[in-house]
Fold each of these.
Amino acid sequence: MNNPLQLLTPRLWSLKNSILSKNEGNKRILKPILLAGIGALFWSGIFLISIRVLSYFRGIEEIGDLLSVKLLSMMFVIFFSLLIFSGILTHLSKLYLSKDLPLVHSLPVPSHEIFISRWLEGTFDSAWMVLIYALPILISYGIVYQASLLFYAFIPMILFPMIVMASGISAVLVMAAVLLIPASRIRSLFVFFGLSVFIIIYVAFRMLRPERLVDPEAFSTIFVYLNSMRTPASPYLPSTWALDGVMGMLHGNSMDALMNLAISASGAFTIFFFQVILSDRIYFKGLSKAQSGRELFFKRKNRIRAEIRGFSGPAPAIAVKEIKTFLRDQTQWSQVFLISALVIIYIYNFKVLPLEKSPIQTVYLQNLLSFLNMGLVSFVLIAITARFAYPAVGMEKEAFWLIRSTPICLKSFLWIKFMIYFIPLLVLSEILVVATNILLKVTPFIMWLSAVTVFLMVPGIVSMGIGIGAIYPDFKSENPAQSVTSWGGLVFMMTGAVFVAAVIMLEAGPVYRLFMADLKGHGMNFIDWAWTAISFSGVLILSLSAVFFPMHLGGKRLESSEY
């Protein structure tokens, strides 16, 4: 392991220099502190919610503990799936697409040792966030069930083998796929992985059938319901071994916990040595094929014309360039497939909600969920915008000087970017809102309110993505997904979340008054109408400010910069 560890030293030196550098004074220290503070808030939020949910479950007689075990089982399956998917994307980049691979492979080091170093780096990059945000959930179990101190020491011991197994499985899948699929289509592997993830997520989610947790009447008898809750997960999944180990230590059964830890550790060692042996045979072959010219996974016979009929000039040319760039970069397509999977699952969740069994009046509950759904759709939109629209300026990379040399101002360039992403994101958001409202059978007033509110919020969110992406452009990123985790990406997501929360809060009071007046058939007084007018005017002003202000700042920053 000397050579693999030695190959990791440049990464460690880079981290050390970034921490100790004093070129930017307090700014370099302020960003990590602020990021750590925001991460701590999210961590604390997950912890407090987990404590509240588990305490409520434990207060339910007979089935409370079963619900807690079922919830933890679902969480481990989700964690393991996320680790595999994140590992696939990270290992494909680290092992085959990184720019420094020719330099690294020119060193007098065996290829399998280079593979180990890259695998270690990819494992850390793909797993650290999942590990951090899994800890508050597991710690909350220990607090609610009053576990001993050994339980908290056991948590990282049982999670580490699961991470190693997920990372090893991801690396093996990547090496096998690169060897089987023509190397000229290496980037098109993202399409294959995207389709696979779409199928896996959907099938896994439906097999879990989470709606059963709130609908025990779906079973013929309570006995069948309890038996279904006791049904164990597959004994061949590493997530099941981790779950059994955690539950054994949680209930004081140390021997059972250690047995599952030993099984997990043996599985981790087996997968690690298997992937090293496999890499010694096929890794370099796949890497050699990956250096050949790129070929499209799906060939297109029809080409987009360089000019849009009826228009001419630099603006249409840049618009066509953006569309062609997206279609040619098939690494983006996997994200489209993944988003499609999430959208289908999102809509299906509303279909299976047992609203008629709720103690709350159905009409009131349906419209309440619809109003809250506006916020959920907006947060989904923020995530999609962060992935596609925010990195749009940075994706110009070293060729940005060509944009600066064109006879078009940079603000117009940003508005072209805005229009390209605004239209599809608006259509997606309206589909989500209208489809879920139809499933909820809301009143016409709530239907129109949701559609109009989302119509006002979408341009603001897209504008913030483009504008803040222009204020903090990342022209050196190899992968657009890396830009989202940067300082600018965090600023955009925080700003977008504040914008959505402000709109929902401005509308909440007047909407409640209007809905109850319509439901009970009585009118509203002058104060209520004045409040409604002021609130909706505030929403309109806030939405217009969110559209124009970020674009102005982004264009001004690009014009004054030396990029």
Note: The CA atoms of residues 158 and 242 lie 6 Å apart.
Amino acid sequence: MNRTIFFRKLFCIVTICLGSGFFPELFAQIPLQSQSVYDGNIENQPVILMSGEVEDSGFFILKRNNAVEDRHTFSLAKTDGQWVFQSDLYAGKMKKMKIEENGFQAKLVLSNRKKRFFFFPQQVPVYFEKRTEVAVTPGTRYSEIQFRKSEVSSDITYGKAYGYWTESPYSDEPYIQTLAKGLIKTFDDHSLLDLKLDIYQPLGDTLKKRPLVVLIHGGGFYIGSKQSVSERKLGMELSSRGYVVASINYRLGFKPTSSDIELSAYRAIQDAHAALRYLANHADKLRIDPDQIYVGGTSAGAVASLNLAFMDNDERPAQIMDAEKGGASNRIESSGNKLTDSFRIKGVLNMWGAVSDLNIIDADEKIPVLSIHGTADEVVPFGYDYPFQNSLLLNRALMNKMYGSKPIHDRLKILGVRNELLALPGLGHEPELRTFNTLNHYMDTITSHVVDFLKTETAPQLVLPEKQLLLNKVSALKPFYYELTGGKIAQVQVTGGVKTSSDPTDLSIIWFRNSTDRHFSVTMTNQYDAWNTQTFQIKSE
């Protein structure tokens, strides 16, 4: 093809493309995009410029060492083929204007400054570059249902241990009658029992590492099952939101002596510990994080959960220590299986549970607790009292007083440990049950609080000293100091000010003078795809 003809055709193609807007970004002659932030300088003075809804107007602030700055409105318009910048500080024509994809540079011929030598206008360099900020859409995993179905793996053996039995069906009979029926079995020798658990996983989940919730059923350490109606409900609800859930069986039964009753509770703690070691050992296969485990249960299961989280070997009751010396028991981690895998309990779901000794809750453990309890509970006290108030005074002969959810809440509050108490006025034991296998409407309330508590503990948290939120007109520009746990910052949004950079980890903010509302919101996420947004209000001195 003739070279002249080729270039003519190429010129026609480019002309058509330009006229039709085929290359809008490459050839667009607009210096600023609407509602964007630009970093740059004028006259070598660092400036942050914010364009408005119309590209050629907005305001800018000087980036100095002040936490509070005035806003200066500006316009940037093309007049007779010449770009003109107008503001109260800088005004004039732009020479040698070079518009790039994300900004522009030029020489600003100042018309609002005295001329040099009476007739030479001052010229200052201008340069601006658009901030690159990625739009963030927080996910709703853990707070809302994400998966329609759960995959349940049943009767997985996590250990073996000697005991009476590991499962006994619930009934609506009074507890004292249930004890009488099982009494003859407790005089038989212990048998080697299989300890089993069920695992609920969200079907179709692709996340590589997920938090684990371990549920321990109730039943007075005598009856119950990992497939009880409350545990099944929580297992399905939590797995549908993205958790892996394990519901465990453990050794049940005891002789009618105070020492054996206490041993039955201790055996449940040992078995739960064995289950957690097993689950930690299979963390890769189950795609769980053994350092992100929550334990919880109802009634006796809550008692076991609290002791599992807070009680150390040297804090065990005297009767347990004596039983160990006599060979009738052993250390918490020395039963069920020989696995030694470590794990970390990040929170406890205490549903109408109690402890026999508040001193096991130490200041340095810092394990958050959600407590839910009926204030008229006669089986496990809401306050400090004997359990089983309706057991014909046998409770006083065989059991010690226990500290229920109210004193547990008070203890944690004094120690500065995050905890929540949902007191259910006038309700008794197992407030969620209509019958032993039928739930009532209170289960929705309980589930809602469990979901919210676990979501808060799974999501990242940012702690910022409040004294930094006080501002006056002479405050110096300083980055906010903060401590972030369990994740990373994805986005910071500011009202009444502007960040000094696009770096989300740098919380340096310049506030606008005369703004009546100043606050910033930090959006965070982590490896579990948990999101959290926290908002901090600035107060003027």
Note: The longest strand covers residues 150-163.
Amino acid sequence: MKKALPIGIKNYRKLKEDDYYSIDKSLIIKEFLDRKTEVTLITRPRRFGKTLNMSMMAEFFDITKDSKELFKDTKIMKTEYASILNQYPTVFISFADAKRNQNDIVKEIKLQLRNEYDRYSHIFNNLTRFEKEEYEDIINHSLKLSNKTLDNISNVLSFLMKILEKYYGKRVMVFIDEYDTPFIEAHVGKFYDEIRNGLALLLHNALKTSDSLQYALLTGIQRVAKENIFSDLNNPVVCTVNDKRYSQYFGFNEDEVKELLKYYGFELNEQVKEMYDGYHIGDNEIYNPWSLINYADAKELKPYWVNTSANKMIRYAMSKADASFKDGYNKLMINGYLDTRVVLETSFYEVSTTPCLWGLFINAGYLTIEKEIRANRYRIVIPNQEVAEDFQSLTAYYLNVSDTYLTDMFDGLRLEDENMFIEAYQNILLTMPSYHDLISENSYHMMMLGMSAWLSNDYEIISNKEAGVGRCDIILKAKKDDLASYIIEFKYSDNEKEDLDKLANQAVKQIKDNKYDVGLDGKVIYIGLGHYHKQVKMKWMEKDS
């Protein structure tokens, strides 16, 4: 009988004791100890195995646990560090569920801290007078759920660490998973100022000023730079997705994917690669583990990575973006790549620049770095088909159009259904907030070009390229034999009495006269579109018909 797939399993002990399928990532512990960095932050997209890895590391170090059986066949036990299994007082908290509204975030943070206090309740029996006074204040006030703020939690974690060191005679290992989730959620929810100081001081006092810290490891999507959490620490290390350090431990490499798929009766073919491959982390090619285990379970090649939390964050950021981002976004959609400056180490909501926004797209998993051009300048791409499909909803939001209409419009092209195409296109025009932006042929051209990102898996998108004896507006060159290619030409009039049918026919005539179809094989369809503001008429004609 095959082992069960660990879908949604975030607890390492449960993973091993219940004998789920697992891939050994335990050598992350060796790298962590070899480096001896006091505080390390590793940034990765959601659902890349951060929580499970953090749970594994906490299990390895935790002095209150017996983890011999969990690690008996792992790579870390074949290293010199096998002897320190379960030898350190350890704090492990996760802010992954600190989401939604302010009350929910405050409650979740306090619950995480209360769980650690409960777990170590035996260490508080022999406190000094002043330690006891501080402990009672924490229990009776700081961690009270009825207190809906974080204003008085600044010493909660550092005090626990101090008493742990006193009790066990060893400094403390600290693991904080998804540390940035409360900051991001509060920023998007517009209550950032209400939680920032308390949470920042909690982390600052534990990671910067505490003498009881041995090593700390944090994970998140991005670095929170302005809260002084990381400033003035001894050799802090921030490992972004572009860093070689720890690059192989989050997500699956190709050999691990082959092994997993083979175990469940699949193979790593080109279709699987196109759907799930494409992430570049450090010098490793990485697959999203969530997608692969769901594919092996459901046995269906489809998107599984729906990053709703990051989607909300990016939508908010896109709404604040400047003109340079819009220009870059259009180039990315047209060419399939963008050469641009990227800042990965600073969050967009703190420094609202276009390079930081591209960094957010990369840190959140929507884009990946294909190559470095020079310092802080990279070629960025959408990693795979799965992400491209999730990208479509972002594009619809960005263009302020309905993704349902976009789906119908481009299904009309795939199915060669002219009525479906023109009805959806007309609905898009009618539901756009204003026609004042539609002031020329180029306005409609650029709008269609941005929407055409939805077709990048099936078509090569060509715009304003010399073809025949002129420059065509848009060519959609089919990548698959069973699809037709399209040539789209736009015409516009600012005269409401203009015959739009006549304009559409002129557009098709221009396509034919200028031989824009040179070099296109298979079936080719001409589309001429005549516009007056939100009104449109279309001429649809198959080549040689």
Note: The first helix runs from residue 12 to 17.
Amino acid sequence: MPVSVVLNGAHQPESALALQAGDCLYLRLADARGLGLAPAPDAPIMSVEGEPYLTLDTKTGGPVSAHLLEDGTLAITAAATAFAARHLGEVDHAVALSPIVPAIFLDYDIDVLHDGGGTRATALLEGTISGAWGVFSTSGIVAGGLETGGRGVGAAQTVRLDSSWLRDFPAHRLRLVLGDTLTRGSSWTGPARIAGIRLGTEFALAPEWLTWPLPELAGSSVLPSTLELVARQDRRDIPLAPGDFTYAWRPQFSGAGTVTMTLRDISGAVRTVTRSYYASQGLLRPGLVDFSVEAGALRRNYGVSSFDYGALMGGATLRRGMTDHLTLEARIEGGDGVAMGSAGGTILLANLLEVNLGGALSHGPLGGGHLAQIQAQRLTQSYSLTASYRLRSAQFRQVGEVLLPGSGASRELALSGSLALGRGGSVTAGYLRVGQGASRYAIASLGWSGNWRKAYVSLGAQHTMRSTGDGGGETSLIAGLTVPLGGGGNISLSADRSRSLAAIDRSPPGNLGLGYHLAGGYEQSMGRHSTGKCNGGHARERSTLPGSTATARRRPGSNCAAA
């Protein structure tokens, strides 16, 4: 007989076919599934004229119970577990690949330095050609100079830097490099520069695909509902069918946070729960593998000699997500009389801290050595805290590492933190203590940054302490001001105890056009004052080819530049 259905007190828009035999009630299986019910595999099913019917429990207390009302309405009471469980979340949509267009790109970066010894110019040149077969690029440095008073012209020196062929496989998130490249390092071991081959994963080829585990929110409802998720600077509304559900929450930032989950069903009932989470990009999704395999000849005297190669080496790195809270990592490498193996991982502790542990053993010219590191951090939108400690024996070596005379065991302690003050800007603080053999030094810093009207202002202080050599300490104050001009330009001022710099920058447009960087400064160095000179700065004229972009860069330690 056709019946109207009331499910968990809510009238359903569609009627259903039911069967009554004595005290037993049966509901057509297709109608049960249309109501969202998901019968268990061992649920009693009866066939009537070839049509399967689900046996309903007429006693209350079971997952699904029912009874017929006097008006012929079938009243069904179902627990959340009687409905199909649902896993919800944002779907990763693959980014469409653009057609491959053959291209040639030429880039140059010119630095000019003038001081009492004369004028010297250095040009960094890079050429790239690409097509469906991949990308080939090569780069080098050309340097020359003129002594003061025109007494002589230094011979121009040309040094090749890197030459390589690169081929990406976006469908598999893989990258192959032949030629000059870097091996894969970790947070506790560094990379080596080689000329050879490297094959490994490259997740940047699928930017829409999240590699880190998302926090999951869970709940249940017995009626159609709306799930409201509210976090800091984020809100979402998701319609829900009855049943248990999990939702993969994609936060707007990495670190710790809270989200308020409000469930409103069609009867007007409201339930609100606040839950904490911690999203870490240092973790991999369970089962996800990140690897790199390298082999080749070690580069020596990079930036000085064009073709100086050393011993052969090989190495491999493997990272794998074990759970939502644990990712393991291991690396082995050997060559040039050195063998090194390391292991470690990243673990998330109770949605409070992200801890990175690593250790390595090596055997080289000085015998066996070891390295150990631990780092813990907590990131939130309001504050962040990071602490790390690193211990390295004097005998520890990596493949391709240069042996420095007198280098002993080292110990390094680093602490840092930041606090967001809302409209009051933000405060940062740091402390670094390093021990290398018999020498010790420590650096403490404190800074503030914020917006003043349209300008960005930063103030800071740094104190350096030494326990060897000249001893004592040194304190420096740093101030900076940046004012945007619109159209990709800005004016910046910076000063500390020994130098000051004023600069104006404008980024080049996305098509044809020029960008520029003009700067002038003052520096007090080694008891000598210099005005209107460029110490470590650069002069540059940049042009942009169609479809390419170029950005201005200032090398660390440079004080002024002109273009």
Note: Helices lie at 29-34.
